[in-house]
Amino acid sequence: MFCGANISNILCSTLCMLFILSCSAFTSQDYENALEKSIIFFEGQRSGRLPHNQSRLPWRGDSGLSDGSGYHVDLVGGYYDAGDNVKFGLPMAFTTTLLSWSVIEFGNSMKNQLNSAKDAVRWGTDYLLKAAIATPDALYIQVGDPNNDHRCWERAEDMDTTRNVYKVSSENPGSDVAAETAAALAAASIVFKDSDPSYSTKLLQTAIQVFDFANRYKGSYSDSLGSVVCPFYCSYSGYHDELLWAASWLHRASENESYLTYIQSNGHTLGADEDDFSFSWDDKRAGTKILLSKGFLEDNIEDFQLYKAHSDNYICSLAPGSPNFQAQYTPGGLLYKGSESNLQYVTTSSFLLLAYAKYLSSSQGGEAACGGGGTSTITSDKLVSLARKQVDYILGNNPAKMSYMVGFGQRYPQHVHHRGSSLPSVHAHPAHISCGDGFQYLNSRSPNPNILVGAVLGGPDNRDNFADDRNNYQQSEPATYINAPFVGALAFFSDQSAQLV
């Protein structure tokens, strides 16, 4: 679409935005439907005593009601990360941060789903608060031994494996998981600042304490607890990225100049000069650059211009035709980063594209500069178009005509790698199903009896092929950190009047 020079920039941007949205394979109502389902998924991942209004996934029941009791702490609640029954602190905290960021940037587009999205955030933060304040100079970061858990195929409501509890401390540090927890609490404090100011204050105060702990006792939790966090959620990127990420969120949430000073003083040693081209529960560098670029684009913090330049590098790496282009796409147009749970990178990239497009649009003449000296530029409209293609692919506009969100569209995976979804529910089968007896359901060719509504799975391979097979967990397992950024992306596209200006 060409916008002539006689049309004002604002009108051109608006017309282009309407053109982008009108070209979608889906309507705003479709996106709104997908948004609702993407939030319902988190209800299926809840651990603890379920609320009375848990009616949208009635096959779930209470679970993990004694978590922490053997260690004289209350660790009931939180989320199971994926298809198993372990509560892993690092992905849970990252999930909570990205859910919060989704609400912060696109909550105004969530309409009647906003309260449900905030409930999803709160289910995470209520647990993270418990984990943070239970013991001085310590943070509880996991409930359940994954090695034992993975030897079983059983419902969360039936768990009979040992619910070991693990923590990081001054003697056994975990700056990565602690800093991510601080980021989650700080981001959530923004979410609740107006609707529940006392809760927001508690979140922020705890975030400050947890960040101080992470920064004072430096070390990776993979070194302290490698036997139970590796290879499941090993911190391959180290902890520097989380420290800068957490400081960035604390700066935004508290507006305290000390965090600006921390970023200015420590940024170069914590990854500010490094380009990275994926964003995940493990590696926060690209997300941090985008987050801090807002400070330059909207708040004119000159020291953050560096982050705008690195954000441009990341964004341009995703754009075909850009001098910086280096991403891989499948023949059907899906961003492809890895063979295991690839859609986690697709949803995070889609979210960052939209968040950055929003920040660019708030800045006069804001564009992403690509190539040496910015010889090529990408507009915010182009970023929205790139994100929409990825979102639409996930929802079913792909060669297989398969929606990779469970319960959305006419065709979606039926054999999800998820214990609770694949086993008969406690309501349909009240009798206990033991650890080993559940494997008959894992290996069954029958569809899952319980629909895990809204779950976004690992997704197809680099040739757009997908095996609807429970045992192929790389493709068929859902995860909270896949859905969390997708909530924000869907919120943006669900708003028919969405504009970036």
Automatic annotation (TrEMBL):
Catalytic reaction(s) noted: Endohydrolysis of (1->4)-beta-D-glucosidic linkages in cellulose, lichenin and cereal beta-D-glucans
SUPFAM superfamilies, sorted: Six-hairpin glycosidases (SSF48208)
Signal peptide: 1-25
Residues at the catalytic site: H417, D468, E477
Hydrolase found in the keyword field: yes
Keyword presence, tRNA-binding: no
Residue ranges annotated for the Glycoside hydrolase family domain, each copy included: 31-490
GO biological process: cellulose catabolic process
EC number: 3.2.1.4
Any Pfam family matching the protein: Glyco_hydro_9
Gene3D superfamilies, A to Z: 1.50.10.10
Enzyme class: hydrolase
GO molecular function per UniProt: cellulase activity
Keyword annotations: Carbohydrate metabolism, Cellulose degradation, Glycosidase, Hydrolase, Polysaccharide degradation, Signal
Family under the similarity heading: Belongs to the glycosyl hydrolase 9 (cellulase E) family.
PANTHER family: ENDO-1,4-BETA-GLUCANASE
Name of the protein this chain belongs to: Endoglucanase
